[in-house]
Amino acid sequence: QVQLVESGGGLVQGGSSLRLSCAASGRTFALYDVGWFRQAPGKERNFVGSIDWNGGNTHYGDSVKDRFTISRDKAKDTVYLQMSSLKPEDTAVYYCAAKINTGSGTYAQMARSETYGYWGQGTQVTVSS
Fold first, then answer.
1. Strands 10-13, 123-128: parallel, antiparallel or unpaired by DSSP?
2. Which residues contact 47 (CB under 8 A, 6 or more apart)?
3. DSSP β-bridge partners for residue 36
4. For residues 14 and 128, what is the distance between their CA atoms, to the nearest angstrom?
5. pLDDT category of residue 35 using cuts at 50, 70 and 90
6. Is residue 55 very low, low, confident or very high in pLDDT (cuts 50, 70, 90)?
7. Contact predicate 96/4, CB 8 Å
8. Three-class SS string for the chain?
9. Between residues 27 and 110, which one has the greater pLDDT?
10. Could you count the other beta carbons within 10 Å of the beta carbon of residue 74?
């Protein structure tokens, strides 16, 4: 079993940058793919991006492509979501999720929340205009 804890959220102005962290404990996290999702009040949970177990394959949602970057530090069992040029519409609770790697995941697979078996508690990001 993997436990995930997100951190780094907060209140920032539009145009700012913020880095979220997803720290894992438990089983060998290096074998897990990780996804980031977000959910705004009254809206469904949406895919932000993902990174495979080795860090060699990433996917991003259209609304964050070219602004957000996902990376991982295997030594620290941590995955990062670097967010830049933040907009008010990026305001949401951000969640990281993990699943054990079973091969190269397609965008469609990685973007489905049902793909993931482990979830963190979320961290709030609020972007003011």
1. parallel
2. 35, 36, 37, 61, 110, 111, 112, 113
3. 49, 96
4. 6
5. very high
6. confident
7. yes
8. CEEEEEECCEEEECCCCEEEEEEEEECCHHHEEEEEEEECCCCCCEEEEEECCCCCCEEECCCCCCCEEEEEEHHHCEEEEEECCCCHHHCEEEEEEEEECCCCCCHHHHCCHHHCCEECCCEEEEEEC
9. 110
10. 12
Task: Determine whether 79 is exposed, middle or buried from the number of CB atoms within 10 Å of its CB (0-12, 13-18, 19+).
Answer: buried
* Contact call for residues 80 and 86 (beta carbons, < 8 A): no
The mean of the pLDDT values for the chain is: 95
Among 63, 48, 41, residue whose Cα is nearest residue 97: 48
